[in-house]
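hiii, so i know i said id send this last week but things got crazy w the move. better late than never?? heres the sequnce for the chain we talked about at the cafe, plus the structure i predicted for it. fair warning i was half asleep when i ran it
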Amino acid sequence: MSITELWGEKPDTDDVKQKQVFIMTPIREIAQQALTSGRLTVEAEKLIGQLLISASYTLEDLNAYMSLQLAAMAGRVKQESLELAAANCGF
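okay and structure toks below
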C-alpha cells in the first residue's frame, strides 16, 4: 500500500513531519496487502513503524505484523527497503 493510496495524494514530506499525522490504517490491512502482493513497500514499512511507535494497534494488528515478518524471513514477501539497500551497495 502506497502513501498515495492512503492519503489520496502524496503529502509534502515537511508537512507530514510538522503535523506528525498518523494514518489510522490498521497494521493488519497493510500486512495483508503486502502478503497478497508479495511485496512490502518502503512507505508501508515506514507507516507500520509509525503505528507501532504510536501504540496505535490491536492484538490482531500485532499478529498480522508477526505473520508479515515471518513471511519476509521466509522469502515470501520482498522488502523494497532491503532491495534498495542491496542495489546501493552493489549486491
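btw Helices lie at 3-7, 13-19, 27-37, 42-53, 59-73, 80-89. thought thatd interest u
miss u guys!!
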